[in-house]
Automatic annotation (TrEMBL), chain A:
GO terms for biological process: COPII-coated vesicle cargo loading; endoplasmic reticulum organization; protein transport. It comes from Collichthys lucidus (Big head croaker). Belongs to the WD repeat SEC31 family. It is found in: Cytoplasmic vesicle, COPII-coated vesicle membrane; Endoplasmic reticulum membrane. GO terms for molecular function: structural molecule activity. The lineage of its organism: Eukaryota, Metazoa, Chordata, Craniata, Vertebrata. Gene3D superfamilies: 1.25.40.1030, Functional domain of the splicing factor Prp18, YVTN repeat-like/Quinoprotein amine dehydrogenase. It is a peripheral membrane protein. This is Protein transport protein Sec31A.
TrEMBL record, chain B:
As a component of the GATOR2 complex, functions as an activator of the amino acid-sensing branch of the mTORC1 signaling pathway. The GATOR2 complex indirectly activates mTORC1 through the inhibition of the GATOR1 subcomplex. GATOR2 probably acts as an E3 ubiquitin-protein ligase toward GATOR1. In the presence of abundant amino acids, the GATOR2 complex mediates ubiquitination of the NPRL2 core component of the GATOR1 complex, leading to GATOR1 inactivation. In the absence of amino acids, GATOR2 is inhibited, activating the GATOR1 complex. It comes from the Eukaryota. It comes from Collichthys lucidus (Big head croaker). GO terms for molecular function: structural molecule activity. Its main location: membrane. PROSITE patterns: WD_REPEATS_2, WD_REPEATS_REGION. At the nuclear pore: component of the Y-shaped Nup107-160 subcomplex of the nuclear pore complex (NPC). The Nup107-160 subcomplex includes NUP160, NUP133, NUP107, NUP98, NUP85, NUP43, NUP37, SEH1 and SEC13. At the COPII coat complex: interacts with SEC31A and SEC31B. Interacts with SEC16A. Interacts with SEC16B. Component of the GATOR2 subcomplex, composed of MIOS, SEC13, SEH1L, WDR24 and WDR59. The GATOR2 complex interacts with CASTOR1 and CASTOR2; the interaction is negatively regulated by arginine. Gene3D superfamilies: YVTN repeat-like/Quinoprotein amine dehydrogenase (2.130.10.10). This is Protein SEC13 homolog. WD repeats lie at residues 18-59, 62-96, 216-251. SMART domains: WD40. InterPro entries: Sec13/Seh1_fam, WD40/YVTN_repeat-like_dom_sf, WD40_repeat_dom_sf, WD40_rpt. Belongs to the WD repeat SEC13 family. One of its GO terms (biological process) is COPII-coated vesicle budding.
Length: 1155, 329
């Protein structure tokens, strides 16, 4: 039975079977289960003396502190008593809410029942005795309290006396019925554990009586006919109401009988193992399969009374143990009181049993106990001298684990929001024959329902490409105006004419503006969309001059009623339009500078500027400066800004309350390559205010500029985006903005900015936690080498339960923990170091991982030919060709262009010179046409960030507001942007100077002398970087124009073929729209020719162009279009965006026209 | 201030695995990816099921324990497919899959009583297993390569028995920023244990020796389980403990030194609470109690813990709860 082995180790503090021990000859009572901490009350035993012959009696309370490894128990209180005890119980009654207190009840040898307050004992108070009765006539050996009503206490004494005490009314006990006859000692009373009004009593003769207190009479008597049962103990089954056990003290029948009242003729079971009479039993309330018994054979056994099997023996005693008690609170513990004067606390969970370090008292005791001269009058046990053991004895725990360690239920989380649960049905004590299903449930836990719903909607929109609908729905459901604004702006990015719509969103209506202009000019303007001829121009100039005065007056009027924070005054001029002869002469002679000076001196600014345009960029600039230097009012600031393109001043110095106006001005005037930066600057200022309102306004700026990173930063700075829904709020906007930019660029926008990576990773983490593994994967930033992201990716990949046999993806190298192969050359003292280094992802495997086909990515563009949803262009950048009129023609003076077209006949042809003309558009991604791709040149943009600098508001595919109609009204109460005020009169409208300043191209370059030789380099300047104009640069530009190269001979065929194609089409075209397209095409092909001159096109593209050219020559447009598609799809879009779209348009038209 | 947010927590059973265990199941743990399920039972066996795509294919039936198996724990997959199990038979067995078959990799018999809990440390620490036993000791088994396991033992960690161990996430003390790559991070190994002395104890390795770092007292009965929450990037450490006394406490520590822990009572249940488990993201706590009930708990914005779901009978549950956040007023 005892499982022993030797030499388990040299540790000093082995867990001991024997946990606590104290020298006392006493009856014991554990504090109730609810009581904390655990106390043990000891009342000096009657009829026993210890070795000191001490005849005093006391009630002592010890704290059993199991966190203290020593055998000591701390004495918490002591009360001298007049009587020694035969029995003691600790009752819940009167227990405080904090789980302390209760009542101790002692049954003494002289028949007194005393009720103590343990709290008072421990506090050394005087009134510890709260009740006392000497109703009983003899020693009280039996005490038990009702488990249901803790105020009810049963006691039994000699002469068949049984009393039921109500602790609330202690003076008058009841009886359970008439005394049984013949009168006998009551050795034990016990309340039923299931039915509260059932009590049993037993006497040494072996008879047990069951009382029904409601009937106040005995209802059954149990007696075995051997007459040898000498009942020392009786206990009800903890779980089964009808069963009880009786223990016999008789050495001739040292058994425990188990009775069932339903078959009360003979015992159900007889537990036989003890060799001498049983002194005490205790049934575990925590596990009914554990019944303790101590007997005069010195053994303490633990039975499974349901099977009759001895499941454990405490190998501990060499003495009779007259009282064993399970600890109610800690079910693994029991205390045993032995006749050798020890109270010992044991555990049934096994451990080592060390040889005892016996105390002096112990030695004295042991020297006497062998003699036991003052014994209990009972049969002396055989002498047993303890064998000193030198080794630890390892005592195993109970053979079968007790119920309280058998975990019946569990729930554990697993990756992907899975919850693993199991439970075990509560079995009846008797095993049911039917097998119990042993199931484990895997559940999906989703806690963020709304988040998931919104995530699904977003995902659906992203996959289907129905961005407009998505944004529309967001606008409709927006909870706040600010939210609605943001979604409106985001939506605009997916629409044509984004800039105009942005303006409208800002409260500036182009139509109103047109009306106003018309009113001012007294004439309705026709939009005809292309350049004006000389006659038209002349007419306008004429009108300008005649209407000037009137206009100025009007402007003053309106200026006075407007808030006009920016500009309130109208410049006044003396208008005199007689051109001096000397001036005219100089004009004819080409001496523009002289002519301009003359005009300026005469105050004829309009003429001066007109003339200076012909005189070249430098002259124009000088003239402008002179003009502006003479205008000292605030309107000139605007004009100055417009003319010199110095929008930085505006965005840096405007009142933030006027952010709308500033943004509107940018939307109207700023050049694409500047636009994003200017928007960002404005946004930065707004953001800097750190108020929520400003931050939202800043977000709008960033949406206009398409700066995802800034949007995320700004959003994150003023909004908590830690909760899933807040994060969803952000991600929705980011994804939409990103999609719109990708649509513009027709290429992926990589996630590079750390904050965005962080947010998306967080987002993916939440999705994963909610079980949306596939979706989570799509948001996880690709190409990241952050270990956390790689691990999540790897985990997501495997978690999705992919088809077996698929190449697994490891973001870590496996550490060889093989049992057969050495993983480390020697005993590695710090294995973790090795592990860490090995955990670094190997480059190749990661590379391979990224090329894994099964890795889905929503960032993958979806050029799929099948992707033909209605209303959405198959190719995201495929804005209708008509939206691509030449930006250059519209806005840029020839000076800004490559020189070849400087003298082109459309020098004065800007369609925009007609106010309200059909809105000229930027060419597709004009700003990308430079030799350096925008990403590379985008110093302002975060390194490597993928979005175009222009941003959706500026760039190419978006229509751009004609400068002539530019002055956007500030709602109805305009001041500064009333046409007259802004433009200084119709006269200026004849002149494209105010919107075709020389600066736009030079400005970005100026900031970058290093890159100066590349006039097309649209490098941007960090917002804070100084950008002094570089005079040298300006001077270089004309020179460079002169040096303009010819188209290389081998590529001339392209020009001739395409030009001829356009001409053929123009001849054949009938409807005005097509004609317009073709007009535009003629101009836009110039970009191609520029590139050919610069020899900046890659080999691949050139080959493609030649192939297209051959197709065109053979009139095989279909094939040409196919080649076109190939070229576009295989090239850097920024390199070809300026001309490839129009080439496609032309070929399509040609195909249709059959030319 | 009163703020209400309605949120619907759904717990839907997506797979019911019939384990065919012949006696009580005591633990069920999914592997790192959530594709394999390990179960253990009083029938002395450990079983592994492939549960991908809603399936339940028995992969292994591991026999080797001579008593009820209490817990199983998966090692991080970077070490291979390794599972540890602990049993009433006083043994810890580490199983490993080699070439598709599972075998004993190591058997540890250094405990004198039931081994109640096993838990693998964060992968950053290497292959290290903590084992808590009814003999009151905690063993730390570290794989040192070449079939060697280094054993350290904390004797008398919990008088009359240790019921649970749980590792702290690998966090470099005093720093939330990742160490420069190439440098060996200076991790401090810590774990928490709970025992029959009603205590929650924190242990820390210093100079290769395990030392008691903190002793957290709040429970009035056996601590049945402890769970150190995964790090969510915040400097706060969080531990959940549950007890025979029906109480679940959430312990938090904000100071980098890890010295000041405060306890917040999550709930007092009417029955023993056997098990606590944090979600992978550390924001939900699953509590399983003696009444066969599983409840899910979440901390609201104002730091109050609210029951968000009551999963009973394995049938799954849909609970609509009000996440009411209100102050004293």
């Amino acid at each position: 039975m005892i499982f022993c082995f030797i030499g388990a180790g040299s540790e000093t503090f082995k867990r001991k079977m024997r946990l606590k021990e104290i020298q006392r000859t006493a009856h014991q009572a554990w504090s109730p289960a609810e009581h904390h901490p655990v106390y043990l009350a000891l009342g000096t035993s009657a009829q026993q003396l210890d070795a000191s012959f001490n005849t005093t009696a006391a009630l002592e309370i010890f704290e059993v502190d199991f966190s203290d490894p020593s055998l000591e128990m701390q004495l918490r209180g002591s009360l001298p008593t007049t009587n020694r005890l035969h029995s003691i119980v600790w009752v819940n009654f009167g227990m405080g809410a904090d789980g302390t207190g209760g009542r101790l009840v002692g049954g003494s040898e002289n028949g007194t029942v005393t009720v103590y307050n343990p709290e008072v004992i421990m506090n050394s108070g005087a009134e510890a005795v709260v009740g006392q009765s000497d109703k009983h006539t003899g020693p009280i050996r039996a005490l038990d309290f009702n488990p249901f009503q803790s105020n009810l206490l049963a006691s039994g004494a000699n002469d068949s006396e049984i009393y039921i005490w109500d602790l609330n009314n202690f003076s008058s006990p009841m009886t359970p019925g008439t005394k049984t006859q013949p009168a006998e000692d009551i050795s034990v009373v016990s309340w039923n554990r299931q039915v509260q009004h059932i009590l049993a009593s037993a006497n040494p003769s072996g008879k047990a009586v069951v009382w029904d207190l409601r009937k106040n009479e005995p209802i059954i008597k149990i007696s075995d006919h051997s007459n040898r049962m000498h009942c020392s103990g009786m206990l009800w089954h903890p779980d089964v109401a009808t069963q009880l056990v009786l223990a016999s003290e008789d050495d001739r029948l040292p058994v425990i009988q188990m009775w069932d009242l339903r078959f009360a003729t003979s015992p159900l079971k007889v537990l036989e193992n003890h060799t001498r009479g049983i002194l005490s039993i205790s049934w575990s309330q925590a596990d009914s399969e554990l019944l303790l018994s101590s007997a005069k054979d010195n053994r303490i056994l633990c039975w499974n009374p349901n099977t009759g099997e001895v499941i454990y023996e405490l190998p501990t005693t060499n003495q009779w143990c007259f009282d064993v008690q399970w600890c109610p609170r800690n079910p693994a513990l029991l205390s045993a009181a032995s006749f050798d004067g020890k109270i010992t606390v044991y555990s049934v969970m096994g451990g080592s049993l060390k040889s005892q370090q016996q105390s002096t008292a112990d030695k004295i005791s042991s020297s006497f106990d062998t003699m036991d001269p003052f014994g209990t009058g009972q049969v002396l046990p055989p002498l047993q001298v303890p064998q000193p053991t030198v080794q630890d004895t390892i005592v195993p725990p109970l053979k079968k684990p007790p119920k309280w360690v058998r975990r019946p239920v569990g729930a554990s989380f697993a990756f992907g929001g899975k919850l693993i649960t199991f439970e075990n049905p509560k079995l009846p004590p008797v095993q049911s024959p039917q097998p119990v299903p042993r199931q484990v449930f895997v559940s999906q836990v989703t806690t963020e329902t709304e988040f998931l719903q919104r995530s699904r909607e977003l995902q659906a929109a992203l996959q289907s490409g129905s961005f407009n609908n998505y944004c529309q729905a967001k606008i409709q459901n927006a909870k706040s105006d600010a939210e609605q604004d943001i979604w409106k702006f985001l939506l605009v990015n997916f629409e044509d004419e984004a800039r105009i719509k942005f303006l409208r969103l800002l409260g500036f209506s182009k139509d109103e503006l047109d009306k106003k202009i018309s009113k001012c000019l007294g004439k309705s303007f026709q939009h005809n969309g292309h350049g004006v001829d000389a006659k038209d121009l002349a007419e306008k100039m004429q009108r300008l001059s005649t209407e000037r005065t009137e206009e100025a007056t009007d402007a003053r009027t309106s200026g006075s009623v407007s808030p006009a924070d920016f500009f309130t005054q109208t410049p006044k001029e003396n208008s005199n339009f007689q051109i001096p002869v000397s001036c005219a002469r100089r004009c004819w002679l080409g001496n523009f500078e002289g002519a301009v000076d003359l005009c300026l001196n005469d105050g004829r600014y309009a003429e001066a500027i007109l003339l200076s345009i012909s005189g070249g960029e430098e002259l124009l600039k000088k003239t402008q400066q002179k003009y502006l230097s003479r205008q000292k009012n605030s309107i000139s600031m605007l004009i100055s800004s417009v003319v010199t393109q110095n929008w930085r001043d505006i965005v840096q110095s405007c009142e933030l309350d006027n952010w709308k106006e500033a943004l509107a001005a940018l939307l109207t005037y700023a050049h694409p390559e500047d636009f994003a930066r200017l928007c960002d600057t404005l946004g930065g200022r707004l953001e800097h205010e750190r108020t929520e309102k400003r931050c939202l306004q800043a977000c709008l700026c960033y949406i206009c500029s398409g700066n995802i990173e800034k949007l995320v930063e700004c959003w994150a700075s003023h909004r908590d985006s830690s909760s899933p829904l807040d994060l969803e709020d952000l991600v929705e906007k980011v994804m939409m903005l990103r999609k719109s930019i990708e649509r513009l660029r027709n290429s992926e926008v990589a996630v590079q900015s750390p904050i965005l990576v962080e947010k998306l990773t967080c987002y993916a983490g939440i999705l994963a936690a909610e079980g949306s593994l596939t979706t989570a994967m799509t948001y996880l930033p690709e190409n990241s080498d952050q270990p956390a992201i790689m691990m999540l990716r790897e985990r997501l990949f495997h978690a999705q339960g992919e088809a077996v046999g698929q190449q697994p993806l490891n973001s870590f190298n496996r550490v060889n923990a093989s049992a057969t192969k050495p993983a480390a050359p020697a005993q590695t003292p710090a294995p973790k170091a090795q592990v860490m280094s090995q955990y670094q992802p190997s480059g190749p495997s990661q590379m391979a991982a990224q090329q894994q086909p099964p890795m889905p990515s929503i960032f993958t563009p979806q050029p799929a030919p099948t992707n033909t949803r209605p209303g959405l262009p198959p190719s995201s950048h495929a804005v209708p060709p008509s939206a691509y009129p030449s930006f250059r023609e519209a806005f840029l003076p020839p000076t800004s262009c490559s020189g070849s077209r400087f003298n082109a006949d459309h020098l004065y042809s800007p369609s925009s010179s007609q106010p309200g003309a059909p809105v000229p558009m930027y060419p597709g991604a004009l700003h990308n046409q430079g030799p350096a791709p925008p990403m590379a040149s985008g110093l302002y943009a975060p390194p490597g960030s993928g979005y175009p600098q222009g941003g959706p508001g500026a760039p190419a595919a978006k229509p751009f507001m004609a400068p002539a109609v530019a002055p956007p009204p500030i709602g109805p109460q305009e001041g500064w942007n009333d046409p007259p005020t802004v433009r200084g009169g119709p006269r200026k409208k004849k002149v494209p100077d105010n919107y075709t300043p020389p600066a736009p191209i030079t400005a970005p370059v100026m900031g970058f002398p290093v890159e100066a030789p590349q006039p097309h380099d649209h490098a941007q300047v960090p917002p804070g970087a100084p950008r002094e104009p570089s005079v040298q640069l300006l001077q270089q530009l004309p020179a460079e124009r002169v040096e303009q190269k010819e188209i290389p001979a081998e590529h001339m065929v392209l020009k001739s073929t395409f030009d001829s194609l356009v001409q053929r089409c123009q001849l054949a075209a009938r409807d005005p729209q097509t004609k317009r397209k073709l007009d535009d095409a003629a101009k836009r092909l110039g970009f191609l020719y520029d590139k050919l001159r610069e020899q900046s096109l890659s080999h691949n593209i050139l080959n493609g162009l030649h192939e297209i050219s051959r197709c065109v020559a053979s009139q095989n447009y279909q094939r040409g279009l196919e080649v076109h598609t190939q070229v576009v799809s295989s090239s850097n879009f920024s390199e070809i965006s300026a001309f490839m779209p129009i080439l496609k348009v032309v070929m399509t038209i040609a195909n249709k026209l059959g030319v | 201030m009163k703020q209400e947010r309605w949120s619907v927590v759904e717990v839907s059973v997506i797979n019911t695995v019939d384990t065919s265990h012949e006696d009580m199941i005591h633990d069920a743990q999914m592997d790192y990816y959530g594709t394999r399920l390990a179960t253990c039972s009083s029938d002395r066996t450990v079983k592994i099921f492939d549960v991908r795509n809603g399936g339940q294919i028995l992969v292994a039936d591991l026999r080797g324990h001579e008593g009820p198996v209490w817990q199983v724990a998966w090692a991080h997959p970077m070490f291979g497919n390794i599972l540890a199990s602990c049993s009433y038979d006083r043994k810890v067995i580490i199983w490993k899959e080699e070439n598709g078959s599972w075998d004993k990799m190591y058997e540890y018999t250094g405990h004198e009583s039931s081994v109640n809990s096993v838990c693998w440390g964060p992968y950053d620490f290497g292959l290290i297993l903590a084992c808590g036993s009814s003999d009151g000791a905690i063993s730390l088994l570290t794989f040192t390569g070449d079939q060697q396991w280094d054993v350290k033992k904390i004797s008398n960690a919990h008088t009359i028995g240790c019921n649970a161990v749980s590792w702290a996430p690998a966090v470099v003390p005093g720093s939330l920023i990742d160490q420069p790559s190439g440098q060996k991070p200076n991790y401090v190994k810590r774990f928490v244990s709970g025992g029959c002395d009603n205590l929650v104890k924190l242990w820390k390795e210093e100079d290769g020796q395990w030392k008691e770092d903190q002793k957290l007292e709040a429970h009035s009965d056996w601590v049945r389980d402890v769970g150190w929450a995964p790090s969510i990037g915040l400097p706060t450490s969080t531990i959940a403990s549950c007890s025979q006394d029906g109480r679940v406490f959430i312990w938090t520590c904000d100071d980098p030194a890890g010295n000041t822990w405060t306890a917040k009572l999550l709930h007092k249940f009417n029955d023993v609470v056997w098990h606590v488990s944090w979600s992978i993201t550390g924001n939900i706590l699953a509590v399983s109690g003696g009444d066969n009930k599983v409840t899910l708990w979440k901390e609201s914005m104002d730091g109050q813990w609210a029951c968000i779901s009551d999963v009973s009978k394995g049938q799954g549950a849909v609970s609509t709860i009000t996440d009411t956040q209100q102050s004293e007023q």
